[in-house]
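Help wanted!
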Amino acid sequence: MLVPRCYDRMYTTFGRHILGHVVEVLDTVGGPEICASNKLSKAHIGNFFGCLLFPWTCGGIRVSGVLYPFQGSGTLNLDLNPQQLEAVTTTQGPLLVIAGAGSGKTRTLVYRVAYLVEMGVVPESILLLTFTRRAAEEMLERASQLMDQRCRSVAGGTFHSFAYKVLRQYSQMVGFEGGFSVIDRGDTEDIIQSVISEMKDQLKNIRMPRKGTISEIISKARNLDKPIGNVLTNHFPHFANLEHIIVSIATNYNAYKSTHKLMDYDDLLLYFVKMLRERPDIREILSSHYRYVMVDEYQDTNKIQAEIIRYLCESHRNVMVVGDDSQAIYAFRGANYKNMFEFQEYFPEAKIIKLEENYRSTQHILNFTNAIMARAINTYTKCLFTKRVGGIVPRLVDTGTEPEQAIFVCDSIQYLMERGVPPWEIAVLFRASYHSFELEAELTRRRVPYVKYGGFKFLESAHIKDLLSFFRALLNPEDPIALGRVLMMVKNVGPTRVKKIQEWLKATKTPITLIAQWEEAQKARLKDLREELESLGNLFQELETLVSSPDRAVERVLDYYLPVLKEKYDDYPKRQRELQELIPMAERYNDVASFISDLILDPPNGNLGNVRESEAITLSTVHSAKGLEWAYVFIIWVAEGRFPSSMCLNDPEELEEERRLLYVAATRAKDDLILTYPSEDARKVYGFEERYYMGKTDGLSSFLLGLSGDVVHTIRFRKGSRDNVSLAFEPPKRSVAQKKPRVEARQEFKEDKAPEAGDFRPGEKVKHPAFGVGIVSKAPKDDKLEVLFARYGKKLLHLKYSNLEKI
DNA sequence: CATCACGCTGTTTTT
DNA sequence: CAGCGTGATG
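Answered by r_m:
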């Protein structure tokens, strides 16, 4: 007997797999014993619409071996809600999806890819544009698990990587006949530096902004599609008097790039859109190739990206954009969340779908985030709600000083891990990368492994740039910056000789391999120099034979470079290890050029491979945490001047973005959210801080002032009182007396023996130190076990980390 | 001509 | 604290 109310939850299970689970369908009604089960086959299901009807003809399903008769399946959270389903199945025409935090946006995109393929759309004609390439890869991976391997052929990536791909194909159309190389921000700054030194007679006695600031100004002007003067008055008023100088630096910078066949990140988009504007024929080719376009994180696209989308969809108008205006956090680099609303102007026939049910966080957390956003100046398009009950009210912890903040967070993390919370469910978020330095030191002292995301770039460290410049110089002999960097590594070669050598190379058209023939190096006095140049020439000669085996090329460069590295840095062992990480990365490529361009378009995150990710907690800037989630989230430094950043306090628009940033941070939390700030004067701790924050009031972030006690609980923490940590995590009603035996019981259990996989079977009742009583819902696999808890919902637990007890 | 030691300065977020 | 320019030294 079928229970009809389950229909709306079941009708979306259209594949053999639901998010990686093997699904079997039970033919008859009744208990597990009498259910005959059929493995779902393609034939059985037919197509998606066959699936829609499917539940009417069966008695229940079995998911990865666990039985879900229809009577109890209402809690099964593996499918789509009606809005998500509508977004998935609306494939024709423009579609705007406004998707709140944790509303299953990614799942919707994944299902939509799978659905399109299921409906017979050629995978190569689907284009999925995302914010990072990792996001695209993960979505396509999940879609492949849902459907089949065809989903891997879907075109996906960032706007920048897509632009690169297209521009390489049509490079002659944009005036780059022999192709081009992509440069990162570091290269940009190097070029600006050299442009400035060329212009230095014009610039004497002028106090110039730093090169990083100049490149920021130029980039912002281009991304906003506004003149430099405009950007200066709006964002850098103190440099407004330098307008004509910066404009001419920009002109020279652009000229430099085109003569040397270089494109920066902005160029990729700008040349792409320029080509689309001017060439209806190419528009038509692309538009007929990519028949279905999807864009994720649409609130963080800029005007140029929106224009690119319009051109790409010109003829078919099958475009779905997904975004959330309340999570727009990239205005500083020219993003324009108004694209979300302007979409309807260009696509008036667009269907609009809102996803407002949050599946991630507890209601307590949403109460908090809603309260933060309720005080925003702008009004946003949705309000989140959840069916998740239980959990605990977010805490705001005043930790006194910064060292105590680090101690509190470390104590808390250790407290949680001792109680079985796996490290990958814990994250510490902060506004700016350097905010975590103190915490990192404390974690290192206590040997708590962590992975840090955001801030410092692997690619920007000097040794990596050194290494890459060999390949740059190899691939693009017209790139004097890269070659210059290489030459500077040679002993007794400084800026002057670099310049002379480059001029000589150019004048005599000598290939780099014969660099040792440089006239001046023939002098007997400079024998050492000539030998150095000879070995450099040999290196390049060998590299030319290795262009199609990047891993061997990296090894060869390392042979040459490691001695230089040892000379240059005291901490060379660490740097050497990082460099060697590049070898396995290079192995995946067939040629050096694609290895290098991929590295630049999708730079790897900071710490590579030093810790096993499964052992490590996460530290991340809020920007880098976008789209991710953890059970326990700490947000540190919620202090005025840090979060919001002191740089944004004067501008209401920027302050508004800071607020959204805090919203993004808080909505990463599934079960528990803890905010911390040092209320006392932390300035005395660091001389450096003292100067910077002089005259500013630290103290609590204005975003958190005057929140009601229902929304957040305030706690004081001072060093040396670990009780405070338990206070922060345990409901106040529970007495200390009750708490103690629990801990002892756990220790006894530990002495016993570690639980084995075979000890737990689906359906058994277990007790978890932090989550309480639950029922095993999925058999152990790879030491992992899924348990359904009354208060916390489904949890994937690691047997090694969670002290589970059978009861 | 390269290199080193010194002191000053400005601190965000990223494809 | 690091990245920069400056001036002294080899």
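OP: Thanks! One thing I noticed: The radius of gyration of chain A is 29 Å.
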